[in-house]
Amino acid sequence: MDRIELQKVLEAAAKERGCSVAALDFDEDDNVIDVTIAKVEGSVNLGDCEFVHRAVLAAFDRDVEDYALTVGSAGISGAEADALLKDMEEQE
Known about the structure:
The protein has 92 residues and is an alpha+beta fold.
């Protein structure tokens, strides 16, 4: 996955939600990506994390790129955000 393109997608999606990318971490194989977003005013909510996550999914095909992605905030870990999102999807 092209890191520059990923950074562009992340920054654009985060900005659209009034957020910024606070951290972007990769595992040693570059296929597990952990993104942390933040807001200057207010708190990052699950909808913000979901929006950024979906923007990356739309831009990069997971079957082609072979990556795992978590998006969270300083107040909630990526794993916690994933669990909340899964619960929400199951309730729909």
